[in-house]
Specification:
Helix content: 25-40%
CATH superfamily of the largest domain: ANL, N-terminal domain
Number of strands: 26
Number of domains: 2
Shape: globular
Strand content: 25-35%
Distance between the termini: 47 Å
Radius of gyration: 22 Å
Largest sheet: 13 strands, mixed
Structural class: alpha/beta
CATH topology of the largest domain: Rossmann fold
Oligomer: single chain
CATH class of the largest domain: Alpha Beta
Amino acid sequence: MTTQQTVSTFGAVGDVGPNWVDDVLLAGDGDQLAFSHPQPVRRAELAELVALRRQALVAAGLRPGGAAALWLAPSLAYVANLLATWQLGAQAILLDHRLTRFEIDRALARLSPQVVVSASASVGGFRIFHEVSDTVTGYSDRPAETDHAVIQLSSGSTGPSKIIGRTAADLVTEIGRYTRIDGVPRAGERIILLPSVVHVLGLVGGLLYGLQAGVTLTPPERLTGDSILDAIDSAESPATVLGVPFHINLLNSVAGARRPAAFKRMTTGGELVPPSVVAAFTDRYGVPLGNMYGMTEVGVIATDLYGQHRPALQPAPGIQLEDVDGELRIARERSPYLGDPVPDRWADGWLRTKDAGRVDPDTGLVTILGRLDSQVTIGGLQVDLAEVETELNLQPGVAAAVVLFDGSVTAYLELADGTELAAVEAGLAQRLAGYKLPRRYQPLSRFPRTTTGKLLRNKDALREAAAAAQ
């Protein structure tokens, strides 16, 4: 088979000094607000919190070249410990506070950090940022296995989590990538921060970019549509809401016709947003709904912050993309995965995304077509489940959909109020050949999601959600 390849190249990568936290993240006017919730914190105050946490980490045994595991809910304590770890020249292992004790113990045994930072009391409730008192305990005397600045676990939306490492240069390069994207918040503006800062979108696109750019981070008091609007209304400076498609539904569900004057735009990462959801949002709020595509391994890859190219996106500055036999690949000098080599994901300087997609040779725009492993054979005919899922999401009244092969082609879907399943089936039958159509439709009252807000594609979880809906 002849390999067809289209390449789009933007930008380059630079070097990072040992004081990158102070030079990139904590520099600037100390009187400027870094966070406006849960309490106002100015940049100088944040630097003092970081210094205090640095002392506690050293006292517990963290050394340059070591690693600190942060098992904390998003909070000022999390931010201070993260920056303090990096200031010490140590590696930060980010563990979602919603993981079970079993999952945490397994991760700690695998990565063997010198210290573990955890909450002294459990947290709960529908909050974005939590009030957390942290405890630092020693764990081992081993140095970190790699020179990565941060270790993260992938979201696990399509399979077991992978252990992913990124260097300080990776992070600073991605921050620089954000500064060159048209439509991102600028100094003096605000980010209404909804995604977890433990995961890549909230971590780099929210926390780190916000600190570098002089943008005030404003997590809402609670994870509700009204609370998000309250956060936008809390100041007159322009506000960009950063989230995932789940958060669009929260805003679309708010009663009344409230339109905050400071609302500038909303930007989401994650799965493609159905057109009906986009239309409901833009009609309701009159601001652009932008889209981003990224991976834990790389960060932001492509964007469309003005909603002009939907469903296509513009590759972010510094990203080199190619499509090979219908798969998107991204240039990376080294594998981002810890442990044994992963040849089916990285080889010869290219990271395989396992996403089907294409790069337009004329415009450079990239279109994501779904997971590459979505091809199945039905009665001797090839069916692309990603195509079926895309067309299903285009149907009026479909709020979210996942199409899997579960003995037969099965569509799990969440419908807007007043939408009849029969109408969705009839509309889909007009767009797809009969052999491609789902044999089973499983309406859900609410989709199960990963900790990062992505639609969960695990068959057992979807079956359980369908049974609960029935």
